[in-house]
Amino acid sequence: MATSMRWIALFLLVAVSALAVSAIIEDGLLPNGDFRNGPDKSQMKGPVLTGKHAIPNWELSGFVEYIESGHTQADMMLPVPVGANAVRLGNDATIRQQLKVARHTYYSISFIAARSCAQEEKLNVSVDPEFGLLPIQTVYTNTGWDTYSWAFKPRHTTVWLSIHNTGIEENPACGPLIIAVAIKTLYPQLYNKGT
């Protein structure tokens, strides 16, 4: 009887471990990382998002706008590509998402961003307790978009990824545009002696 209970306990342990591993986020876009699943119109006031969970899979705080292709601001068209959607992080705005990851494994977060105002813009990317402050550059290309990456090594299996605009401007809407957020597992390079 004791032996069969041990086998059942071992089986349950293996089954639970397999479920935990399968829940780890996969490489590629984060869930709704391209913001295609937009907000319900009842959670918007113009382009400004009014609900904490207005964008599926994301938690919002501060002055966050949902920008669709063709959106204009004071006679200036924002550079959102046709068919894409973006979020604009205005004054003290944050988007964040909870992720299931493997402890002590390196990951890279990448996102595509563009400036929307002339002011200096910076984004604080963090997975507690680690963070990185990334300046958003003016890119002189035909699109104005650039890709930014930041690596981290989580201490827990469940973490919050946050992207925060630290700026406070006279125009609260001034802030970076983001159109895609992705994750990649970084595997250590193995050194083969003699090669």
TrEMBL record:
Name this polypeptide is given: DUF642 domain-containing protein
Coarse class of the protein's main subcellular location: secreted
Subcellular location: Secreted, Cell wall
Keyword set includes tRNA-binding: no
Keyword list, A-Z: Cell wall, Glycoprotein, Secreted, Signal
Organism: Triticum turgidum subsp. durum
Secretion signal span: 1-23
All residue ranges annotated as the DUF642 domain in the record: 28-184
